[in-house]
Amino acid sequence: MTKSEMAEKLAEKINVKKQQAEEIINIFSNSVIEALASGDKVEIRGFGSFRVRERAAKEGRNPKTGEKVLVPAKKVPFFKTGKDFREAVDQGD
Amino acid sequence: MTKIDIINRVAESTGLPKQDADVAVETIISLIKASLSRDEPVILRRFGSFQTRAKNSRIGRNPKTGEEAEITARKVVRFKAGKHFKETVNGQPSSTEES
């Protein structure tokens, strides 16, 4: 399902234009992104939680040349699936 | 941040009544869950993608007792953040690329 397909279904469900449904999906996404960027986490019961995981700097290697390179520390957005969602997916319902 | 905060933001930005914003957010969540339950990935550009992954069964260990136990084969959800999301979290200027 793409954003466009989601927008169509959402528009039908809440009776708004597709463009407004897309805007709502963007607000949803941006809320999560901005919360994590500001150091906060997002918890949605029955769905899951988004938080930032810190990855330490490490020494990597260029797989082509074998040269050593320093991979800098970075932050990675992480989603932990909530119990209901996890069970629904595992049982395929 | 919780669901209520997202609902409030949707209501404020769109001017929709809070009750409608609530239904909208619940619907987005339900649509993602339903799609993944059918093994269909959800791809939201700039945000990221959700997809299911099959995990084989393996022998795990109870970290408390040290006892071995089989972890059954299962399906799990994997979220992969999009480029814009990853960059924003790392405080980099948001890219204009659509990924």
Report on this model:
The complex is a heterodimer of chains A (93) and B (99). Chain A has 93 residues and is an alpha+beta fold. Chain A has 2 domains: 40 residues; 53 residues, HU Protein, Chain A. Chain A contains 3 helices and 5 strands. In chain A, the strands form 2 sheets. A 3-stranded antiparallel sheet of chain A has the order 1-2-5. Chain A has a two-stranded antiparallel ribbon with strand order 3-4. In chain A, a hairpin with a 3-residue loop joins β1 and β2. The mean pLDDT of chain A is 94. Chain B is an alpha+beta fold and 99 residues long. Chain B folds into 2 domains: 38 residues; 54 residues, Irregular (HU Protein, Chain A), CATH 4.10.520. In chain B, 39% of the residues lie in helices and 27% in strands. In chain B, the strands form 2 sheets. Chain B has a 3-stranded antiparallel sheet with strand order 1-2-5. Chain B has a two-stranded antiparallel ribbon with strand order 3-4. In chain B, β1 and β2 form a beta hairpin. The longest helix of chain B has 20 residues. Chain B is elongated and about 55 Å long. The model of chain B has no long low-confidence stretch (mean pLDDT 92).
Number of helices of chain B: 3
List the secondary-structure elements of chain B in sequence, H or E. Answer: HHEEEEEH
Per CATH, the class of the largest domain in chain B reads Few Secondary Structures
Strand order of the largest sheet of chain B: 1-2-5
- Percent helix of chain A, as a range, is 40-55%
Distance between the termini of chain A: 17 Å
- Give me the side-by-side strand order of the main sheet of chain A: 1-2-5
- What can be said about the biggest beta sheet of chain A? 3 strands, antiparallel
Poorly predicted spans of chain A: none
Strand content of chain A: 25-35%
The fourth-level CATH homologous superfamily of the largest domain in chain A is IHF-like DNA-binding proteins
> Which structural class matches the secondary elements of chain B?
alpha+beta
| Count of helical regions of chain A | 3
Oligomeric state of the chains present here:
heterodimer
For the secondary structure, the number of strands of chain B is: 5
Shape of chain B: elongated
Return residue spans of chain B where pLDDT drops below 50 for at least 5 consecutive residues. none
